[in-house]
Specification:
The protein has 68 residues and is α+β, with helices and mostly antiparallel strands. It has one domain. It is built from two helices and two strands. The protein has a two-stranded parallel sheet. Strand 1, helix 2 and strand 2 form a beta-alpha-beta unit. The longest helix is centred in the middle third of the chain and has 19 residues. The two termini are 15 Å apart.
Length: 68
């Protein structure tokens, strides 16, 4: 989970999940606390689903949507 996916790719990370902004990769401070909790929960669920997907090279996934 990172906001700097290009760095993660360069070091050979297999599964890269792009999160929020640089200072808040696991958060969205512009949301209300309740909405941010929902966003974070979806992010964790997405990360767990990505761990089940087979990859053979560094693959970038986004919080919402498919990999690059």
């Amino acid at each position: 989970m990172t906001s700097l996916h290009t760095v993660a790719e360069q070091v050979g990370t297999n599964r890269i999940l792009v999160g929020g902004k640089f200072h808040h990769p696991f958060g969205k401070p512009e949301l209300s606390p309740e909405d941010e909790f929902v966003w974070r929960k979806k992010l964790v669920q997405r990360a767990l689903a990505i761990l089940e997907q087979p990859v053979d090279k560094p693959t970038v996934f986004f919080a919402e949507g498919e990999g690059v």
